[in-house]
Amino acid sequence: MSSRGRFITLEGGEGVGKSTNLAWVADHLMHRGLEVVRTREPGGTPRAEAIRGLLLDPTGEEPLDADAELLLVFAARAQHLARVVRPALERGAWVVCDRFTDATFAYQGGGRGIPPGRIAELEAFVQRGLQPDLTLLLDMPMEAAQHRLEGRLDRDGGTRDRFERERSDFFEAVRGAYLARAAEAPQRIAVVDADRPLAAVQAELASLLDDCLESWG
Ligand SMILES: Nc1ncnc2c1ncn2[C@@H]1O[C@H](COP(=O)(O)OP(=O)(O)OP(=O)(O)O)[C@@H](O)[C@H]1O
Ligand SMILES: [Mg+2]
């Protein structure tokens, strides 16, 4: 058996509960005695977080070209993989990441309309075969997720980032692309109904994680 750690990603549109459940997944795994690295994309290292700033910043006159956006996402990913994800997996730690390449297929593919084949070329170049071992796709209708997001913005203050300012057809396309991706890789991507109380979502996450822990040994 290999001592390499496992790579788990959380995916889904805006406000579905990725960050909330990421913390919970990390705790769940730590309680089972595993070393866990919590991280996110775009970002996860200082330089990759700087690229995240460029991607999310809604201000400025100059629109961000869709191909430039895609390349920035993969530039941040290359840095994150080299500095954080690969070293952690190699020393046997588990990596739990808020968004990864499925988000690129969803946002830059579904949302922006970049052909998936072009994204797949960059995926192969940057990841060199590395894929998540398990992806938890939190899925719910866009309107309900927007409502949650508004609740969070009201409570925490803050403003909408460059993606959160998109229109509803953008988010419908993102959701559709995520679900299409899950249909293509059902053994890796588990679709979890996120439009339920947190306790119900987390009970399902616990059972998915424990099934994986058992089958991975
Ligand atoms: N199952 C749930 N039921 C009700 N509220 C929830 C649930 N899950 C998360 N929330 C709340 O919804 C809001 C959005 O959750 P969270 O920030 O975790 O989403 P996110 O997917 O990380 O969003 P973003 O895409 O903006 O990063 C938060 O206020 C959170 O407390
Ligand atoms: Mg979040």
From TrEMBL:
Domain (Thymidylate kinase-like) ranges: 10-204
Catalytically driven reaction(s): dTMP + ATP = dTDP + ADP
Keywords from the named record: ATP-binding, Kinase, Nucleotide biosynthesis, Nucleotide-binding, Transferase
Gene Ontology biological process terms from the UniProt entry: dTDP biosynthetic process; dTTP biosynthetic process; dUDP biosynthetic process
Amino acids binding ATP: G12, G13, E14, G15, V16, G17, K18, S19
CDD domains: TMPK
Enzyme class: transferase
GO cellular component: cytosol
InterPro entries, sorted: P-loop_NTPase, Thymidylate_kin-like_dom, Thymidylate_kinase
EC id: 2.7.4.9
A single GO molecular function term of this UniProt record: ATP binding
PANTHER family, sorted: THYMIDYLATE KINASE (PTHR10344), UMP-CMP KINASE 2, MITOCHONDRIAL (PTHR10344:SF4)
Its job: Phosphorylation of dTMP to form dTDP in both de novo and salvage pathways of dTTP synthesis.
Family, per entry: Belongs to the thymidylate kinase family.
Alphabetical list of NCBIfam families matching this protein: DTMP_kinase
Name of the protein described by the UniProt record: Thymidylate kinase
Organism: Halomonas beimenensis
